[in-house]
């Protein structure tokens, strides 16, 4: 089989990792408005580039014609419209944007256009969805909770944090109400609520708190009576963020400053990017724990999946870019290789209903030194 033709929309930290990984096997193009990012890809890898404002939907529709697959790595606020535009262009798509909208609203549109769209396929949401979807095929899952975070190895005062994504996406995660399921009932709490300290052997004690990471699992795994997701940060980080939130720095309603209307959240994101931006070769890590329990063949079972990944010294790719990007490229290979061809919108928990697809993704990650360890009792 000849090379497939793939275009990656977005050449940020994760988009770069996606393009580089896919270029080892396919003809890859990358599109972004940032020429420096494009120059980095075209100068060091067999990747063709297109300078384009990806907020222009008409430009995207004409751009993606002739490609076998589109991978969308745009910021979350652009995600829904980007996926919709690509579907309307009749192209298969893999998306990692963590859009605030319900992407299942595009399911009928994708089915009508004969498009396969795999959404939320990063490290998280993504890998936890895949794992719970896999276990749901052969056991009665009663409880599912996962903890996940990407952090710098060196803690720098005052935030002890660096963002692998655009700060506005992180702020969105901190402000979007968190949904979870307890005793069969879906509940909502403010993001950053119910903090707890959790120990991880590789990094020590981290602070975990609610964010809205369950997303499509709330519908597709609604029969599971207890489901929670919590984000991990160094202790002390979240108190500062809560102070900013309380003071109104994350408000979306414009205020007038010197006769100029400005949304506080836009101002805050611009300021935070200076403090939160990862340096090109800054060492960081990704840590995740997934706990899942229930009944299998008439007896109780408990599974714990754990991942710890660090900056790649050889490829010079951050851990969060690797874990998020390679989860997405694994899904891309599932489509390109003909392993999955369903028409519509599919989050990873639905992909995992095919055990072969689950095994393929886990082996794909392991081949790239991203190891998800599992223990069972």
Ranges where pLDDT stays below 50 over 5 or more residues in a row are none
- Amount of beta strand: 25-35%
Count up the domains: 2
CATH class of the largest domain equals Alpha Beta
Topology, number of strands:
18
What class, by secondary structure content? Answer: alpha/beta
Q: What CATH architecture label of the largest domain applies?
A: 2-Layer Sandwich
Explain what the structure shows:
It is a single chain. By secondary structure, the chain is of the alpha/beta class. It has two domains: 171 residues, 3-Layer(aba) Sandwich (Rossmann fold), CATH 3.40.50; 184 residues, Dihydrodipicolinate Reductase, domain 2. The chain is 34% helix and 29% strand. The protein contains 13 helices and 18 strands. The strands form four sheets. A seven-stranded parallel sheet has the order 3-2-1-4-5-6-17, sandwiched between helices. It is globular and about 55 Å long. It starts with a strand and ends with a strand.
Write the layout of secondary structure elements.
Layout: E1 5-9, H1 13-23, E2 27-32, H2 35-44, E3 47-51, H3 57-63, E4 69-72, H4 76-88, E5 93-95, H5 107-112, E6 116-118, H6 127-135, E7 140-152, H7 167-175, E8 178-182, E9 185-189, E10 196-200, E11 204-210, H8 217-220, E12 226-233, H9 237-246, E13 255-257, E14 260-262, H10 264-276, E15 284-296, E16 299-310, H11 319-336, E17 344-346, H12 348-351, H13 355-367, E18 372-376
Parallel strand pairs: 1-2, 1-4, 2-3, 4-5, 5-6, 6-17, 7-12
Antiparallel strand pairs: 7-15, 8-9, 10-11, 11-12, 13-14, 15-16, 16-18
């Amino acid at each position: 089989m000849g090379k497939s033709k793939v275009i990656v929309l977005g050449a940020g930290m994760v988009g770069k990792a996606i393009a580089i990984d896919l270029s080892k096997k396919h003809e890859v193009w990358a599109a972004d408005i940032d020429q420096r990012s494009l120059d980095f890809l075209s100068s060091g890898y067999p990747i063709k580039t297109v300078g384009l404002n990806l907020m222009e939907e008409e430009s995207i529709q004409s751009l993606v014609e002739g490609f076998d697959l589109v991978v969308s790595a745009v910021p979350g606020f652009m995600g829904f419209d980007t996926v919709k535009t690509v579907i309307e262009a009749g192209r298969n798509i893999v998306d990692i944007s963590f859009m605030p909208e319900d992407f299942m609203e595009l399911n009928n549109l994708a089915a009508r256009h004969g498009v396969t769209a795999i959404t939320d396929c990063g490290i998280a949401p993504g890998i936890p969805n895949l794992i719970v979807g896999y276990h749901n095929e052969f056991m009665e899952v009663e409880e599912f909770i996962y903890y996940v975070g990407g952090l710098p190895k060196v803690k720098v005062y005052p935030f002890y944090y660096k963002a692998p994504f655009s700060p506005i996406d992180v702020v969105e995660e901190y402000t979007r109400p968190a949904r979870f399921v307890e005793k069969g009932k879906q509940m909502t709490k403010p993001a950053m609520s119910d903090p707890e300290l959790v120990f991880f052997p590789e990094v020590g004690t981290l602070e975990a708190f609610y964010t809205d990471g369950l997303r499509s699992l709330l519908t597709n795994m609604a029969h599971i009576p207890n489901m929670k997701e919590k984000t991990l940060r160094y202790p002390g980080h979240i108190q500062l963020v809560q102070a900013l939130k309380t003071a109104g720095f994350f408000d979306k309603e414009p205020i007038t400053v010197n006769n100029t209307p400005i949304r506080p959240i836009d101002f805050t994101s611009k300021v935070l990017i200076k403090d939160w931006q990862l340096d090109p070769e800054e060492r960081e890590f990704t840590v995740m724990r997934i706990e899942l329990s229930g009944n299998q063949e008439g007896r109780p079972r408990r599974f714990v999946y754990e991942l710890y990944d660090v900056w790649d010294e050889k490829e010079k790719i951050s851990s969060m870019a690797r874990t998020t990007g390679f989860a997405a490229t694994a899904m891309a290979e599932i489509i390109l290789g003909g392993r999955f061809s369903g028409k519509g919108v599919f989050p990873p928990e639905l992909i995992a209903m095919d055990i072969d697809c689950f095994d393929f993704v886990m082996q794909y990650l392991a081949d790239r030194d991203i190891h998800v360890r599992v223990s069972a009792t």
